[in-house]
Amino acid sequence: MKLSAERSYANPEAAARKLVELASGIEPVQDGCIHIEKINAPFLYTLKASGAEFGAGIKHAIEKGWLEMHESGTYVRLLKTADAN
Q1: I need a surface site. Which of 32, 58, 71, 78 has the fewest CB within 10 A?
Q2: Which one-letter DSSP state was computed for residue 4?
């Protein structure tokens, strides 16, 4: 018997790919920057992911070179899509 449903974004790579997908659909402000809340809100509230899944996904996307986070933590920049790797 399974007591809980599987989390779609428990795998950091799956979360990272979804975050990159969300980021690619957002019009960047200046210098290609995307406000972090533009990907955070849909990921957490529309997709019902957790904060830990968001954090792991962002970290994975940065490590893979798909996203770059501004030192302030308020912006990300899309470097390349997750499908490129």
Answers
A1: 71
A2: S
> Which residues are paired to 70 by β-bridges?
none
Report the distance separating Cα 74 and Cα 85, nearest Å.
26
Q: For residues 39 and 76, what is the distance between their CA atoms, to the nearest angstrom?
A: 9
The residues near 13 (Cβ < 8 Å, ≥ 6 apart) are 60
Distance CA(69)–CA(38), nearest Å, equals 14
pLDDT under 70 in the chain at which residues? 1-5, 81-85
Scanning the chain, the segments in alpha helix (DSSP H) are 12-24, 37-41, 51-64
CB proximity list for 72: less than 8 A, separation 6 or greater: none
What percent of the chain is helix, strand and coil (3-state, nearest 5)?
A: 50, 10, 40
Place of tokens 């979360």: 15
